[in-house]
Recover the amino acids of this structure.
């Protein structure tokens, strides 16, 4: 009897309690555009993500000759993500990679430490740890990046904390900061890069929103041609799928690459169209 | 050495003696004649179940008649209904999309089981905080005589034929079609049946006037089968079903009730669509954007339009898709549809 009562109470509290307590839908999916959002997948849910980024729209390699970048693919990524429990996700992905870093496998774990509540908890706090690994064949040219003397040289790690707050029902703002470490770099690069970023989502309607995302890197070497990744996007949710169409100077789709390795310059027309598309499955 | 032999001999003979006695104690069997026991019932008829009355008075037993309730099966049936599997995880989930309680209540939904009209059900549900769902309540499902009635034949075609008079098959159809799951094993359905029997209608659930009740209990005590007709007038033997269409209903002079609309939204729509319930990919909450969205789409005749989705549901691919079941006229009236739409309109304008 007590058990049945508690089940009924549980059903009633979940049914009446939602919307009063946890602040939900800060972002539509587990990414803002390409960087992580505070959202995690519900337990036992699998998400499949496909992402594409095309070539430069303008500038030297863009324009009508390459049909505004559509002839060139900058990066392609497929990924599977899985919610182990409601607060913990893991994921793996495969991307083409960019520049000297190609044939990338990546993986991550994300833990939601705090969740914003309508009262008592003003922010969400999330920790994301990820790695990427290039399985490209070792180059015999010892000056090339891909000469990778040891297996561990192939690894890149990114750890970041996300602080997220949804203001009212339309606007979400997120600040992220962290540390990226490339175990093996070119002579004009530095292994460890500190970064801080910010992202926003502005919902026009229930299913259409504007997205923006930016990461500032602190200590890339002045000798290196470097840029900070800046992207803008439009998100359309259909109930089942999320489409995000975006423009970005960053060429790659994984944070282990676009945070430390972006070189394309908005000012020189080196920005591109890209999209991500995802679909959730219950397991 | 000789000591050891003595021990060995002594213990072996001890075992032998014990064995001898063990066999000795078995008594020859006796065959008892089978006798149909009369149900042992409380002298107070109001404590009886509806089925007790019917059987006592010689009504035909239903096909799914269970003579003796098994407490363990009831518990397992309840776990299957609430969680989709046993709590010890010894069986596979019936469905990865739903559990029965997403669509079916487990309590009486009306104060008078002979009147399960949507208006009565909504009234009673509001008072008792009961979800307002498209499936019929499991309370008293055991007492029905036909399942998947009316227009469900249109939706499921030949699939409903064998469910019409067999509760066992109705459960199986709902497991594979309505909950988009696997076929249930015989023992699982048997447990759900015991659970159903446990929440069958009781005489005390029925609404008699005091004179009626006095007459009724006299008839029952006298063993008169006139009581059968009387009790059958006090509840419904079927849940009928008639499907609506996408049109926004027009009821001249009807003034929609926003409070009812709010209850339907919260206890109906949000029962599955509330964020975090993780039953659907389309969340609905008490947020302005949700109301504006629904209001803007109300005339679209697509799956985002309230009058369309509520009456048609979404298309289900057997075992492979989340989908939404529809509300029949028996589960939600046209007046209630207007209440719901008025509530959304009011909220969208806030």
């Amino acid at each position: 009897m007590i058990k049945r009562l508690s089940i009924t109470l549980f059903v009633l509290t979940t049914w009446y309690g939602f919307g009063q307590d946890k602040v939900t839908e800060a972002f539509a999916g587990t990414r803002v555009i390409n960087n992580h959002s505070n959202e995690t997948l519900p337990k036992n849910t699998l998400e499949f993500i496909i992402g594409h980024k095309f070539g430069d729209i303008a500038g030297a390699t863009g324009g009508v000759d390459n049909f505004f970048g559509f002839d060139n693919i900058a990066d392609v990524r497929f990924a599977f993500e899985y919610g182990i429990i409601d607060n913990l996700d893991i994921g793996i992905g495969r991307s083409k990679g960019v520049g000297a870093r190609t044939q990338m496998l990546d993986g991550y774990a994300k833990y939601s430490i705090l969740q914003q509540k309508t009262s008592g908890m003003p922010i969400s706090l999330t920790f994301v740890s990820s790695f990427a690994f290039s399985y490209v064949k070792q180059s015999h040219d010892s000056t090339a990046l891909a000469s990778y003397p040891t297996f561990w040289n192939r690894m890149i790690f990114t750890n970041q904390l996300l602080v997220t707050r949804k203001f009212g029902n339309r606007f979400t703002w997120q600040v992220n900061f962290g540390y990226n470490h490339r175990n093996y770099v070119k002579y004009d690069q530095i292994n460890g890069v500190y970064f801080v970023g910010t992202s926003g989502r502005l919902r026009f309607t229930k299913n259409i929103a504007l997205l923006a995302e930016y990461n500032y890197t602190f200590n890339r070497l002045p000798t290196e041609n470097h840029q900070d990744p800046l992207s803008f996007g439009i998100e359309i949710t259909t109930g089942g799928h999320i489409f995000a169409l975006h423009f970005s100077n960053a060429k790659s789709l994984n944070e282990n690459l676009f945070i430390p390795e972006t070189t394309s310059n908005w000012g020189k027309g080196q920005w591109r169209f890209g999209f991500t598309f995802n679909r959730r499955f219950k397991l | 050495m000789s000591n050891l032999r003595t021990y060995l001999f002594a213990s072996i003979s001890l075992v032998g003696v014990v064995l001898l006695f063990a066999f000795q104690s078995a008594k020859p069997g006796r065959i008892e004649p089978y006798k149909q026991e009369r149900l042992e019932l409380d002298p107070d008829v109001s404590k009886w179940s509806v089925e007790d009355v019917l059987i006592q008075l010689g009504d035909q037993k239903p096909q799914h008649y269970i003579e003796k309730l098994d407490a363990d099966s009831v518990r397992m049936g309840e776990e299957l209904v609430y969680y989709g599997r046993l709590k010890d995880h010894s069986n596979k989930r019936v469905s990865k999309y739903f559990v029965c309680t997403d669509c079916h209540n487990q309590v009486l939904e009306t104060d008078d089981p002979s009147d399960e009209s949507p208006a009565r059900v909504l009234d009673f549900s509001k008072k008792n905080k009961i979800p307002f769902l498209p499936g019929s309540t499991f309370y008293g499902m055991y007492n029905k005589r036909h399942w998947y009635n009316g227009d469900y034949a249109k939706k499921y075609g030949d699939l409903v034929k064998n469910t019409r008079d067999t509760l066992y098959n109705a459960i199986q159809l709902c497991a594979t079609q309505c909950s988009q799951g696997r076929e249930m094993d015989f023992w699982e359905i048997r447990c759900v049946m015991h659970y159903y029997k446990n929440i069958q209608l009781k005489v005390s659930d029925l609404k008699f006037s005091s004179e009626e009740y006095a007459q009724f209990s006299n008839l029952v005590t006298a063993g008169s089968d006139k009581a059968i007709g009387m009790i059958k007038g006090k509840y419904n033997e079927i849940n009928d079903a008639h499907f609506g269409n996408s049109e926004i209903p027009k009821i001249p002079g009807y003034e929609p009730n926003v409070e009812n609309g709010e209850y339907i939204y919260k206890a109906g729509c949000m029962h599955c669509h509330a964020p975090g319930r993780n039953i659907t990919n389309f969340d609905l909450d008490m947020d302005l954007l949700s109301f504006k969205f629904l209001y803007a789409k109300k005339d679209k005749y697509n799956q985002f339009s309230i009058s369309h989705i509520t009456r048609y549901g979404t298309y289900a691919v057997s075992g492979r898709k989340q989908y939404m079941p529809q509300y029949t006229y028996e589960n939600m009236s046209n007046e209630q549809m207007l209440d719901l739409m008025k509530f959304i309109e009011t909220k969208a304008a806030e």
Remarks:
- The mean pLDDT of chain A is 90.
